[in-house]
């Protein structure tokens, strides 16, 4: 049975900060942000949105009546959830008006959890033919004002429906994965902003990618030339280049050019949004599918998922016949183009108003009020 991603959608809030403006305000060289780190703009989250409203706004774009009948399980991956007990997937069930006869669960392992969700979804469909799983990866990446990680903040949600006979990509059963207890990035329960040793994280990421790439080759006998492209977890877009640079010489010269071209395609959306933790690698996949117009059905793409702490997984997907008709490229481009630019002052005010002590439980207000959700939502491909 072929199983994989049947539908995918992305949502990010309507406000955006230009990073050249931020660099000037912080006394940094703009080129450091746009070239050295590889980020142009970042999403700013208003205090009436959170991971649940973002996740629901992504999922509402793809869920049909048929899905409502066939979804048995909602998997919600996040590291910036709204409750320490109750799963964000339960709120999704209400907002999306899904059946009571579903399983709902939230997963956490830094930026990696969405990939585990996808693997669980694939395995569930394999043992329950005809049934479907909704996987949501939604996060707000918050490092703090004037911190070294500030330039890599961002937010957004990816929603995917996993089914048999998928329309976009099949998920191959060739994963290699590893876990190692490292303190490169973490967020103790009393903190709303992440603690990060960005340089250590970059080193661990590169090392885990190289280790898993070698392990993958041993396991599958595949070479770099067998892949049309990569989608990487992108805490900042330069990270993908740093990882790929370690192995790119293994490909023929012509293929190196293709991989480089496709790497740029896979970074485009992420450059405009920033880090979205769990959803980042799947936004990169969506970006690759949206901009690499020379991809064709049967092509194989490698996916590298990394979550600080640290856990990583490398696996491949195969493009399905007619996949290009089901990739929401224009809708995603429009979403990003239509965002409202905010000044550094406005961003700082919005950032502070997101923190718990400056507003009253916005999360439950937002998710209980269906009218507010619809206000934040989409109708016929347009932001309402
Ligand atoms: N023009 C062009 N390039 C310039 C430049 C200029 N004027 N000035 C500097 N640069 C380059 C530097 O040479 C450097 O390039 P290389 O990395 O290729 O050497 C780059 O810009 C960055 O410079 P620095 O290393 O000096 O910058 P920094 O010390 O401020 O750190 C950072 C940058 C590490 C990305 C920092 O912003 C950070 O820590 N961000 C957070 C990263 C993160 O989240 N890591 C966790 C990864 S996993 C994840 O997403 C979390 C999870 O799992 C939950």
Automatic annotation (TrEMBL):
Domain Hydroxymethylglutaryl-coenzyme A synthase N-terminal: 3-163
Pfam families hit by this protein: HMG_CoA_synt_C, HMG_CoA_synt_N
Domain called Hydroxymethylglutaryl-coenzyme A synthase C-terminal: residue spans: 256-352
GO biological process terms on file: acetyl-CoA metabolic process
SUPFAM superfamilies: Thiolase-like
EC number annotated for this UniProt entry: 2.3.3.10
Keyword Acyltransferase: yes
Transmembrane segments: none
UniProt binding sites for (3S)-3-hydroxy-3-methylglutaryl-CoA: 143, 242, 275
Keywords attached to this entry: Acyltransferase, Transferase
Active site annotation, chain numbering: 79 (proton donor/acceptor), 111 (acyl-thioester intermediate), 233 (proton donor/acceptor)
Signal sequence annotation: none
Molecular function per GO: hydroxymethylglutaryl-CoA synthase activity
InterPro entries: HMG_CoA_synt_C_dom, HMG_CoA_synth_N, HMG_CoA_synthase_prok, Thiolase-like
Keyword Ubl conjugation found: no
NCBIfam families: HMG-CoA-S_prok
Family, similarity comment: Belongs to the thiolase-like superfamily. HMG-CoA synthase family.
The protein's name: Hydroxymethylglutaryl-CoA synthase
